[in-house]
Specification:
heterodimer; A: 412 residues; alpha+beta; BirA Bifunctional Protein, domain 2; nine-stranded mixed sheet; five-stranded mixed sheet; elongated; B: 219 residues; alpha/beta; D-Maltodextrin-Binding Protein, domain 2; six-stranded mixed sheet
Chain lengths: 412, 219
């Protein structure tokens, strides 16, 4: 047989793996810079645990299986819920807030022939046990710093809030079924259905008008003012306070040029309660990632705690970098070593000991080494001898003491 | 991004003429789109028009190959992809209906009682499945690619779910409508990222087309 990976799963080979590691390292150092600490959770969770917090939105996305005990399990479709579960079960006794970050594979069911992966990697943070504009702004700052640190030349971060829409819906008091349908239309980004519901007969026309206007407001600081006027007309201006305060902090952090206010952003997970954030790269038809505030999720796990965070798709970051022509610096090989086997082993060990990255080869002469160096992308070709190693350009490396590895710029 | 042309996918076939009418009424220059011949891509100063098969349009938009598009609500519902539906353009109105042979009533009820399942032929399996699941009716769905009204006549299916504008084809083939599933018309849709980062152009276009759609006389 000719083996294949299951549909939607794939192998990652050397070059891509090196780039993924480089991007992940850049992301991790930003996380560390804000004092976030890494955790790991199992790939599998109890389906009921996820369902308790995510509800119906899980139905079409979770990769499910039944184990030998008959328990219904799911591969984690994202990391927010596993980390909320972890916080509720393992961190409840410790002083909040918790700054948690991760790099993790997640799994989602996809119909066939849609060109969608069923496994991808998310990088993200969760700020648990902290509320208010400062923590909202911190999450957005980390997101912006991450996107800059990975080398993206052009990106936009959109922020909004579900608080306004929820407050206006509550004011409408047009019944549970109507509210559910309206939010579903908003989540499905279906403005045609949204407008139809907002202008339904039993909805106060002023409220209906406010709903239709709110989801269309976007821009800079002035967009918050515009939304405040619309919300104020139906007595909901207070729902904007948190976003406005967060915006001021972002402006002070010098991010006003990167961040756009957009009250039309509604993410498909329906557990968000306040801030909503999404990141975009031009030319990429899907968001790089996003997140927001989800203050009620941990209550579903019996440990009420405010929380906010974001996740980015590592794959989409790499696609966006490629589209923007950014080359990702990856660590190459310093040298290939050839010669008599015993000398090769000794020389390579000495060089490794001094911090070189070296590959041992079976090459006996410079012609052989040249081929090896080309294939490996090594900066140096070293022919090992007694106490010295001869580099290909004729220079002699004296191995006592062993020289420091070539600097990054010292190419072939 | 805004320096580049807005990429707009236009469905060939029954919605094509209506799309041109609304674009013209909105004062949008359509250039060679009026008579594209075999061209699949038509550029004007503002817009790159991409002409596609109606059922493929949602994929173009969801994956960002087009920023915006005109597409039937029926096709959007069947594709169930992530696109933002921004305006109802009103033309291309049609209904999704359940139909069966004029003389079939009793025999279908009888076979459902004894076999516990109805066989339904359709071009739209996802919409059909959702409709019958909502009603707790067990069905076997046969996906066909055309001439759906033939299925009950040749004994392939008990009922069909199909779109109809006037009902004439169904009547001519001795089928009667037993229920309406949903009504459809042309929609203006956008890629979910385009609507966020290029929102001024996209929302402005949605507004212009929606206003124009209200003015265009329905044929």
């Amino acid at each position: 047989m000719r083996p294949v990976t299951p549909r939607g799963f794939r192998d990652v080979l050397f070059e891509e793996a090196a780039e993924r590691r480089a991007v992940t390292a850049a992301v991790s150092s930003v996380f560390a810079g804000y004092g976030f600490r890494f955790v790991e959770t199992p790939a599998v969770e109890e389906y009921l645990t996820l369902e308790a917090a995510a509800g119906a939105s899980l139905e079409g996305t979770a990769f499910r299986m039944v184990d030998l005990d008959g328990s219904l399990l799911a591969l984690r479709p994202e990391m927010t819920l596993p980390i909320a579960r972890l916080a509720a079960s393992r961190l409840s006794g410790e002083p909040a807030p918790h700054r948690v970050c991760y790099v993790a594979d997640v799994y989602r069911e996809q119909a066939s022939l849609r060109g969608e992966a069923r496994q991808f990697t998310q990088v993200g943070v969760e700020l648990l046990g902290a509320n208010g504009p400062a923590s909202d702004a911190e999450v957005v700052c980390v997101l912006c710093d991450v996107l800059a640190a990975v080398g993206l030349r052009d990106f936009t971060v959109g922020i909004g809030t579900v608080a306004v829409l929820r407050a206006v819906i509550e004011t409408a008091a047009a019944g549970e079924a109507w509210s559910t349908e309206l939010l579903a239309a908003a989540h499905a980004r279906n403005l045609v259905a949204f407008d139809r519901l907002a202008s339904a007969e039993d909805v106060d026309p002023a409220v209906g008008e406010a709903l239709q206007r709110v989801v269309r407001i976007g821009g800079g600081r002035e967009a918050i003012g515009e939304c405040r006027r619309v919300a104020d007309a139906v007595g909901c201006a207070g729902s904007l306070d948190a976003l406005e305060a967060a915006w001021e902090l972002l402006e002070a952090a010098g991010l006003a040029g990167r961040v756009r206010v957009d009250f039309g952003i509604l993410r498909s997970f329906d557990y968000y309660t306040g801030l909503i954030v999404e990141a975009y790269a031009p030319g990429l038809g899907l968001p790089l990632g996003g997140g927001g505030r989800y203050d009620d999720v941990l209550a579903a796990f019996g440990a009420p705690m405010p929380a906010a965070g974001f996740a980015l798709s590592l794959e989409r970051i790499l696609i966006a970098l490629a589209a923007q022509g950014v080359t990702i610096p990856v660590e190459g090989l310093d040298a290939v070593v050839g010669g008599e086997d015993l000398q090769v082993a000794r020389t390579a060990a000495a060089l490794r000991g001094a911090g070189w990255t070296v590959r041992m080869t079976g090459a006996r002469d410079d012609a052989g080494l040249r081929a090896e160096a080309g294939a490996a992308g090594a900066a140096w070709r070293v022919l090992a001898g007694e106490g010295v190693a001869r580099a290909a350009d004729g220079r002699t490396l004296v191995l006592d003491p062993v020289p420091a590895p070539p600097a990054g710029g010292d190419a072939r | 991004m805004s320096a580049e042309r807005l990429r707009m996918a236009i469905p060939k076939g029954s919605l094509f003429e209506g799309s041109l009418r609304v674009l013209r009424a909105a004062g949008i220059e359509i250039g060679a789109l009026a008579d594209p011949g075999r061209l699949l891509i038509v550029d004007t100063a503002e817009i790159r028009f991409i002409i596609g098969k109606p059922t493929d349009i949602p994929s173009y938009v969801a994956y960002g190959a087009a920023d915006v598009a005109i597409a039937g609500a029926d096709v959007l519902a069947e594709a169930a992809l992530d696109v933002a539906e921004l305006a109802d353009l009103r033309f291309g109105a049609c209904r999704f209906v359940v139909a069966e042979r004029e003389d079939a009533g009793a025999s279908i009820a009888d076979s459902y009682r004894r076999l516990g399942v109805i066989r339904v032929a359709t071009k739209y399996p996802r919409i059909t499945e959702a409709y019958f699941a909502d009603r707790g009716v067990q069905v076997e769905i046969v996906k066909l690619h055309g001439n759906i009204e033939l299925a009950p006549l040749i004994g392939l299916a008990d009922q069909v779910v199909d779109i109809t504008a006037t009902g004439t084809t169904l009547r001519d083939n001795h089928l009667r409508i037993v229920d309406e599933v949903l009504s459809s018309s042309a929609r203006f849709v956008a890629n979910p990222v385009a609507v966020r980062i290029d929102s001024q152009r996209v929302m402005d276009m949605a507004g212009r087309l929606a206003r124009a759609a209200g003015e265009v006389e329905q044929p």
